[in-house]
Every structure is written in structure tokens, then in C-alpha cells.
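Reopening this one. Same input as before:
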Amino acid sequence: MTGAILENGDEQLLETLRRSLDQINQNRIVLPRTKLNITAYMVDPNDSFNAAKLACKLLDEKVWALFSPRSEIITWYVRSLANEMQIPHLTVSWNYRSKYLYNMNINPEDEGDKTLNHEQSNQIGGVTSLMPNGEANLQWLGTVYGTSSLNNRTNRERFRQIGNSIVTYPSVQQFPIEHDYTVNLFPDSNQLSEAFKDFVLARNWKSFTMIYDNNDGLIMLKDLLRISSEMKRRRIKITVIEFPELPKLPPTSVNVNLNPFQEYDRDQFIRTQNVQTDFYQYRKLLKDIKKTEHNIVLSLSQERAINFLRQALETKRMSEYDNYLIATLDIHRFDLSEFQYKTLANITGFSLLSATGQDDFGMMTNNRNRYYDPFYGESKLHQVTTTEALIHDAISVYARSLDDLDRSLGPDEIVEPFISCDRTNKWPFGSHLMKMNGITGHIAFDSHGHRVNFTLDIMQLKQNGLKNVAKWSKDGGVTSNANYTFYDSYKQILEAMKYKELRITIPPNSRPYIYLKDNHEEFTGNDKFEGFCVDLLIKITEVFQKKFQSDFKYQIKIVTDMQYGQPNKETGEWNGIVGELLRHQADLAIGDLTATYLRETAVDFTMPFMNLGIAILFKKTAIPDPELFSFLKPLSVEVWLYLASAFLGISILFWILSRISPYEWVSPHSCDPDPLELENQFSIGNSLWFTIGSLMQQGSDLAPRAWSTRLLASIWWFFTLIMISSYTANLAASLTLSRMAPAISNVEDLAKQTAIQYGCRPGGSTHDFFRNSNHTTYQRMFNTMESNQEVYIKKLEDAIERVRKGGYAYLAESSTIDYLVERQCDLYQVGTWLDNKGYGIATPPDSPYRTPISNAIVVLQDEGQLYELKKRWWVDYGGGLCADDAKISAAMELNIENVGGVFVVLVSGVVMGCLFGIIEFIWKSLKIARDERESIGKLMWFEVVRICTGGSSSRPLNPAQSSSNNLNNASGTNGTPVNEQLQMNGSGLTKAPSFTSMSGQLSPSDRTVNVANSPSSYDYNPRYNNGIMSPQPPPPPHPFHQRQQPSYSSYDGSTAPLLSPSTNSNHSKSLSRVNSNPNSGLKSPSSYSTMY
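Same output, byte for byte:
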């Protein structure tokens, strides 16, 4: 047995109860052995005495659960009775705590209360600020009829108490009454209010107006009133308007002034408004809402909400930028078909049930009577109210709980309730029935029996009817469905743009972006304009037509006040282009409009179609007078001194190494095979000449022969190659840049000096950049500009003229400066960008056109058409007149740090050359000492003395001639001196054989002459005449070398040519000649070699 107490007029709810019980009885899965029935009584909503009698009567009939009506008075009594008797109590009414909300945390009415500041306003009634710290972000406006406005002190205090109690209302856990046996399937008021708040935050509304007609609606939206105080980073401006419903009175035909805000007789005024069907009531309400406000929350009854939307449509307040949130759970019951095709307005609401849930219930429709409705589709969901669905849920939960009790205890152990109002006994199984699990959606209750953790469907009006575009839950917040966005589906936007002509506002004379043609009087419409942005709009139209299968129609107009847009410091209202977008006087704005942080707080921007930054425009420096010694500028004084020192050091080192190395001493005449002295080609003068010739990249007819001098020469040549190349390159750059060396090279140079003034256009993005920057340099520059307001120039033409006069630098976007320097050759851009930003197409907040336009810009960027457009307007159309020296980078002189590595290589080569020279000297000294059996120390000492004391470049062939202690003097065995002569071989000088007896014969070994290749001279053999070496006359010149290789003469008078290094290898071996004269008397000479 189930008992129910309903209000008179709730016959439809009673029918829902019976149908739900019939469905459970027919479904044998739940309670297969039990049949449920119901006993219901109808009472007047205010008749609590009769309701108490009927409740006791139901207890006497042994009911297992009680259903209470929506009346708060009756529900409160039934709730108390059920808790006392421990009988399950189910209700589906609006949260009862709303009735007692005003009794909590209400401050006493005292004039010293600082929570609310009463102010006067030009709007209807007074304006009450309800914000911490006195910030007027929340406004309480009076009712829309004049006799009951906030001008009345009583009403003003009532609003103050209601508003203050809502803002300071604590969490639900502070409610003092526990309801252990009562469950309310209606969503908890706190979580429901949180759902509306999450929706507003997800939509990123910067402001909204809330309209309500009763206190319950205000309580349902209480979290919206606390958004501004909870938001730390941004504030949301909230306006609250009470719009109560007037009492219905019979109409009258008396003609009176229809202005409802003048003091007339109240009855006469109400009758007049009834006659006019609330015409002025709605119209005046819409008029009071600011035109810049496009987000409206309606907490009105279904009929009044529809009427409000109709008036909004007639007053053109239902465009694609307007958002209407209807605070109801029965949005599916609203007939919005008349707004379905006429507008793109966003009409949104919440629903606790869906078509899928209705089919699961199987309660109000079946397959036989289902029909197709063009607005709701193939469903009768609009016939099911939220209350009816909650009743079905309550019956289902109740039946499932009974089934769980039956399965856990068994039918024999369950005792029927035997209780009444006259007894104090309780039913022991009431607590078991409170353990409920829902089967239709997620149904959960808190400790007070209130439904929590529910899920709401966010429904939005589309051209094909209401669609579920998102969901809300306690844990996940607002989550969008995959196929829809908050504003509209992408496909629907493209379809609507086929029939929409967008209004585009542009800045005045924004060359080369968009501007009027010189002969614009001859054209009409968009043909009056030209520029980069005009071509960009044409390209976007082609993308919409070819790729999006849509259209992009527009009408261009110049902004009325000729301003880009700045907010008013007092009112916060924007002027210029941004103001027209906010007032919806334009749909788009295009031009050199930078997407700054301040502007993005007011309007939205598409993807940037051009990236840029702030740069400096300055005049090129005049060509200076040429300097006499400008050729010295490529190298610093330090480098010039190092270079001169290297030249002298290498020259002296050449002279020393050539004297040390034995391979640099050669015969002064190449044709003389028997020279009396040797000559060194590297005198001190020749060494200087060889070094300077290499440095100047010229020849000197001097070729080193020894490995040491060759190595030193190679290192010097490498050194001179690097130095001359660096000097030549830097000299060319220095001479080129000498005529255009800039007075400033970057922004730091500009900020440090005071001779050159600098400025920008006031009120623009560049000015905002310096004003809001935290960089020390930029702050100093901003203070400098603010101290002299004359540096601010509004028109670009005036700025160019002032820069050309000199002494002034203009700060502007780099794209504009690039355009100017391509045409004005006396101007150039200084340094690099100060920041990075972009130009975008501006749209009103939450504009549905932003996404498709951004996609079109991305397509143009991927295809490279944006680059082609900029090249066309920046270079092809009148550009490219100036050289590429517009951007100057100064060429500095080379310091020792730049060329120090070349000097290191030079020093390394010098060390290696000296090391090779010493090795050659020691090696030759060891060889001579070994052959002569002389002391190596003594021999090296004499050679060092000779090198240090001999300044001449020639020396005698016999070293004995240059020393008092001739190493070559020796005595024979008979005490007679031996005449010793020298002959040349492949490795140096060798002593001619000594003759002790003219009649002696030569042995074969004594008659052997070694011929080898000499690196410094042609090979030759001496010829002995009577014991004295005599040279062989040179042969005639060779046809190729202009001289022939010398020949040798044997002792018997035969001659043969000497072998050269290119002769066959068989002939390069030792060549022996034996004297065939037996009477020569020669004996085998002993080999005696000296160093030279």
C-alpha cells in the first residue's frame, strides 16, 4: 500500500503515479510476487489541518510510504510525521530549504550597514551595489512598474535583505534539521545553482543581466551573484532586475497615458497594461537593458519567458551575438519553433531528462501513438514535465527498494507497519527502504535526503530543433558534446552566412592595408576601397565559396569617429572601431588593427593574417667627407703594430736561418763548377724584400732552398693570405658604410641619448606597449615621451615629414615601416623588433563568424597566398626602389682578438723553421766532424763565429781561408805540405786527392768520383791538371733550359755530361773514371770533406 497527498488540480500527477505503478506491476523483474497499489487524497494547498487528518488516515491504512505534494506547508507537516513514525517519505518539490533561506544570516536593518551602499540612478528605481569593497559590479534594479520600485524604502530594504542573505548563505551542512526518512528527488538547490554558474563561466561571459519574477528563481541562481566575489583574476559585471507578474484584473476602456512610470491609480494602471498585453512592460524592460549587454539569464515562467523572447525578436535584440539562458529544468517543454529559423540567437536551457530517458521510462508514449513533430522530432518528450518524470523516478526507486528488502529478508520476516498518529510505536523496516538505488539515471542522496550528483543536459536551439549540446555534472562541470559547440554547429554557421551580409568597419586612411581610392567618387560600394586587406577579403570569399561551400558577403564602411578604440576611464565604454563592434554596429573590423591584451578583453580576434613587431623609423645619415687615412680604419692600431713587428721579425729570422742552413750557400755562378767562394742569396736587404713582397702579394725572384727557410716562407705566406683577405674585406665594408653609419643602431642607443627625440601615435597599440611594459628601458622611454607631448603624432604622413627633417625617430609597427623604406630611400629601419604580435580581424565577443574566418586565413597561409599578397603590396606596387642597405649593421674594425689566431700560426711556423735550421746545422756538423775526425764542438764553434761575424753574403770556398786555424792544413809523411784542393759532389764539398808522388798510380777507389743530385746547383766533376782542380768549361745552352747540363772530365781527357735529377736512375749512381796514363804518378787520394 502506498499513500499520497496531492493538491487540488494535480490530477495529472496522480495519473502519473498510477501509470508508474501499473508499469512496475506489469514488469515481473521487480517485485515478482507483489502488486503495488496507491491511496491518494486531494487537499487544498493551504489546508494544513485537513492534510494532517488525511496523513494520519493513511497511516491507519498501513501504508509503506508517503508521497507529499509540492505545497511547502503540507510537505513540511508530512515530513515531520514521517520522521517521527519512521515511514519513508518521497517528494519531488522544489527544495524546501528555499522557504527558510531568508531567516539565515540576515543582518538587522540598520542605517549603518556598510554591506549595501544605496545610490541613486537614472534607471528605474534605485541602484543597490552588492559587492565587497564597495565595487559596483552587481546592480539590483527595481521592478519595471513605477509604484513598486526601489524608490520605496520598504522594498529597497527587502531587496537588501534578500541579496545579503544570498551572498552570505553558508553551505547546506549548517541546516539545523535532520531528515532521515525523507528523500527529495528534485535536484539539490546548491548543486543546481552551481550548474548555472559553471555554464556562465564556461561561456566566458564578461557580464550578464539576470531577470527573475519570484524569490525561488532568485535562490536558484544564487551562485551567479557570487561569481564576481569568487573570481580573483577577472570581474564579471552583473545586473539583477526583478520582473514580477502583475495581478490579472478586468480590462477597462478608459483612455490614459500609457507611460507606466508615472504615478496613476494602481487599478487603472494595471487594467491598462492588461489591455495592451504587457506591451510596454516587456518593451521597457528591454530598453532598460543596455545595448552593450548581450547575455541575459531569464528566471521566468514558461509563458512570460516566451513573451520576453518575442519582444526581443521584434526589437532586434535576438541576433547571433545575443545569448539567452532560461533558468528552468523544463526547457524541453518550451515551444521555441517561432525562433527556430529567424535568428542565430543562442537560446539555452537545462533539462533533467532526455528522450532516451523517456523511452526507458515507457510512461507517456509508446510506439503506437508516437508521431513526428518538426520541432521536437519523433518524440513526445515535450509532453513530459520534469515533475512527472521525477514522480516516475520516485516510484521506480521505491519499488526497487522493496524488491531489495524482499530478497534480503524474505516475505515471512517482513511485518506490515502497524502504526498510527495515536501511538508512538515506529515501523522497524522504514530504514531498510531508505537504501535506494535508481534505475533511470544517476540517483543519489545526501544525509538530508536531498538528491545530489545528478547530471543535467544542456539544450540549445538549432535550426532542426532543441539539441543536446553539452552536459553538466558535479565532478566534470560543463562538457561539450563532440558534434556541437556552445554558439552553434559549424555547418549551421556556414549555412547562415550564405544569406548574411556582414558589416565591416575599417580605420581611416590605413595605407597600404585598406584605404579610399584617389578617384573613389567614381565607384560605389566596396569598389571605393583598395589595399592589402581588400585583396585579403576577396581571397577569403574564394575560400568560402570553393572550400567551405558557403559565401562571404560584406559591406565596408569607415569608422565614424576615426578612432581605433580606447576605453573611457570613467565609464569604461569604448570608442572607435572597438566601440562599434561592442555596440554591434559592425560585425567585423579589418586593417592595421593589432591584437593587444586590452583589446582582447573587449572583443575577439581571428587568427593573425600578418605577424609583426614594433620597430624604429629613422633618417639615413648623410655621406661624410672622405678622410685622408681612411685606408687604415679596417685594422686597429694594435693590429698595425703587431703586423709591422711580424714583418721585421720574419725578415731578420730569414737572414739568420739562411746563414745557418748549409743548403742556402751556393756558387755565385751556376756555370762555374769550381767556385772559389759560395754566396747566400738572403742578405738582410733581400730578406726584407722577400718578406714585403709576400705581404703585398707580389713576387721577389728569391726562392728558399733549405727546408727550414721554405717552412718559414710557407708560414709567412699563410699569415699574409689571412691578413690581406681580412683587410680587403673590412676595407670594402668600411668604405661602403662610412657614408651611412647610423647615429643609433638599436633601441638602447635611442633610449640612452637625448639629442634625438622619439615618439609614436597616441592611443595606439605601440603607445599601449610602452605604457604597460615592465622593461626598464621601455619604461624610461615612455616617461620621456610623456614629459614631452609634442613627440606624439597622430597622422603617419606628419610623422614621416618630421623624421625626414632629422633629429626624430618614429616608433611604429614593422610592417608599416617596411612599406615606407621600400619607397622612401632616405629612411631606414633601426635594429630589430621590440616585440612580436599580429594583425587580426576583430569580431564582437562570442561571434559565430570568428571560427570560419580563422579557418579561411589558415587555408590562405598554408597555400602561401598571404605571402604573395604582402609581396604584391609591399614590393611590386611601387616598392623595391631603394637598395638593400635599408637595414644597417655596422662594420667594426678588426681587433687583435679577431686576428690573433693568425699570429699564433705565424709564431708556430717560426719556431718550426728555427728548429729545422738548427737540425740541419747540427747534422752537417756531425757529418764533417766524423769525416775529418775533428771535434764537433770546435767545428761548430768556428761556424757560429763565422756566422755571427761575417756580414757578407759570400764566403770562400775553403773555410780555412776565413780562419787562422785552418782545419784543412796537414803535413805528409815526409814532412812536405800537401796541396789540397776541393771538389764538389752531390752532398757538398770534398777534398781533392793529395799527391805524394807523381809517379804513383791511383787505385780504383782513389779514381772514383761520386756524382749525385744537388738541390742547389747542377752536378759537375772537377778535372785535375797536375794535381790542381780545374773546372770544365760549360757546354752550350740546352734548347729547353737555355743551358746544358755540365759535363765531367776524366783524367785521361775524356768528357761526359753530368747527370741531372731527371736523368735515368742507372746513371744517377756512382760514376767511376780510371786514369789510363801509367806515367801519371798519381796515387790514391784520401777523401777529405769540409762543411762547405
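So the earlier flakiness isn't reproducible anymore. For the record, The two ends are 142 Å apart (CA to CA).
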